[in-house]
Amino acid sequence: MNAFIRTLGSLVFLIATLLCAAPTHAEDGYDLWMRYHLLAPEQVKRYDSHASQLIIGSTTPTQTATRDELQRGLNGLLGHAPLLSNDINRNGAIIVGTPSSSPLIARLKLDTTSLGNEGYLIRSVAVDGHTATVIVANTDVGALYGAFHFLRLLQTEQSVDHLDIHESPRLKLRVLEHWDYLNGQVERGYAGASIWDWWKLPDWRAPRYTDYARANASIGINGTVLNDVTDGATILTPTYLQKVAALADVFRPYGIRVYLSIRFSAPIEIGGLKTADPLDPQVQRWWREKADEIYRIIPDFGGFLVKANSEGQPGPEDYGRTHADGANVLADAVAPHGGIVMWRTFVYSQNNPDDRAKQAYEEFKPLDGRFRSNVILPVKNGPIDFQPREPFHPLFGAMPKTPLMMEFEITKEYLGFATHLVYLGPLYEEVLSADTMVHGKGSIVAKVIDGSLEGHTLTGMTGDSNIGTDRNWTGSDFNQANWYVFGRLAWNPTLSSRAIADEWVRMTFTNNNAFVKPVVDMMMGSREAVVDYMTPLGLVHLMGPGHHYGPAPWDASESRADWRPVYYHRADHEGIGFDRTSTGSDAVAQYAPPVAEQFNDLKQTPEQFLLFFHHVPWDYRMRSGQTLWYELVAHYSQGVDDVKQMRETWRHMDGYIDDQRYQQVASFLAIQQKEAQWWRDACIAYFQSISGLPLPPGYAPPEKSLKYYESLTFPFVPGYSSWQ
Ligand code: GCV
């Protein structure tokens, strides 16, 4: 009998394990990484003893949100929610709160001084003779972040015994920037329309807004810019401010502040003034009154984001004033309310014939120290524009008296839009760990933006969002990882992108190591693959004009020279590459001397940046001993081979996850392979027509003629820039 019961027990256990291990029901990706599916029975057993009771307040909206999230998460992961109680009366309680909101926590007398306003600690303790896990912070939002961390431990099947976790964000502003227009379009957005339904706001607050806030809070994002940097001034009108206020209400419990992109000429466009000159007292008053109006209805409004005097946008230079004059008038308007101004450095002018890579530095470096203390300058990761690979931006480390924030592009404008599987973690990590050398070795970009290098307290990172109305939010399941890794690195820019990929895969798909390991490896290699099949060896901006889809290295059709691919690669019969050395545009001089010296020297320049800094003969001998022409072809071919390998890896993943997501990834990888081949063939066909050299032995010729690739047109590319 005993044996029978044992066998029956094992059978039930086996069936339950199989059910958990091999999900068969369709999933559409809506849950993102907050996918609280029932864990395997042995994991449930392991965590049950740590989740018997939940002791948490619910007097504030943030406390309620935290309680709801823990209940939802634990219910999903363990199959039942812990008992909600006011006092501890058994082992395995979870106690959440702040010393001021929870008498139980106050009694523990934990040292929370180092946690600041947003940090938390998670610790295994004994309370009144019972074991418990406490999630403690100085604020409700800190406790919410801690709750998400605790859930992540379970989702990724980590130990929750003997916990002693201290976390606080390294950066103050962790901001998503939406390039969304009021008409519903999203600039460079490949996941459907804007998620802000402006027409129905403020009365209809779609439940999706709350899920958006949950997702952001789960990775520590604490700000959102709702509209595109080239959006008009309408957002500042009373009607739209009511809509903005409604969104701010939804986000507030999750610790998310709302920011707006403003148009510098708003005082003229909606204010009826004749000028937007920042030194004009009427203009200054207009901005002050506008700020007062905003803060009356959104008391925790974050502040303004500005793109000025760049790519046709109005700005202070229209009146002979500087970027600092422009930023300061806005800064003065929001300062009494605790607001900040993010004044973008992505500035270059069509009237300036100098190397585009140099222009932001030249504009801003002389203004160092001339901005108000509530101004921070977003700097794109590289000096051109979010290319698959660029060296770090020379402004990092060059403006010691001014807070700089990192601007990353999460939406894959130049990296295959929604369909290509490109995990951006390695790109972000490469830039954050790049050494500016401004104060000797170890002056890495992460230390510039976390303020530790120059002692700034206003710090931040902003990411140009990839979110839209698609059910899976980002246009593909793997694009969710780019939102995720952005948030995690904004919390701590020294985290490893591999570790982040690992936790994301576990939470988003499965903890099965047979899936996790190969998929994480595939993600980690995916960025190098796209560099290889699009822009290897330091090439940049070979994308089709305007829409940036597909290869067009031959293109010289754009009105502006610095929007043309031929401007960037400068290929001729002798060689290829942009000479930015001291004998060329001298862009290298913008870096600290040891870095400048390295980039200035052909032999010392890392080959991944070779053609960014040097014009190199086709027969130049690379470190491999092969010629540059050979290596160029080899890299393009390697990129395609890598994508083939990614498809092969994914083929072996069939059956580990739900079919719906599996199939979509498989189809998208097929698109990626086709397009990688197109990139390779079109670029090789073109560069061969310039170099006049035969293909190295063993490499297949392009499938079609150069004429064919040049003839392709794409009038309805998604995410097209509406201001061009
Ligand atoms: C918002 C790139 C993109 C533009 C974008 C611009 C910017 O040039 O192509 O769509 O405009 O960057 O960051 O301002």
Automatic annotation (TrEMBL):
Keywords: Carbohydrate metabolism, Glycosidase, Hydrolase, Polysaccharide degradation, Signal, Xylan degradation. The active site is at 311 (proton donor), 385 (proton acceptor), 413 (proton acceptor). Residues 154-473 form the Glycosyl hydrolase family 67 catalytic domain. Residues 32-150 form the Alpha glucuronidase N-terminal domain. GO terms for cellular component: extracellular region. It is an enzyme of class 3 (hydrolase). GO terms for biological process: xylan catabolic process. Transmembrane segments: none annotated. It catalyses: Hydrolysis of (1->2)-alpha-D-(4-O-methyl)glucuronosyl links in the main chain of hardwood xylans. Its EC number is 3.2.1.131. Residues 1-26 form the signal peptide. Residues 474-698 form the Glycosyl hydrolase family 67 C-terminal domain. It comes from the Bacteria. GO terms for molecular function: alpha-glucuronidase activity; xylan alpha-1,2-glucuronosidase activity. Homodimer. Belongs to the glycosyl hydrolase 67 family. PANTHER family: ALPHA-GLUCURONIDASE A. This is Xylan alpha-1,2-glucuronidase.
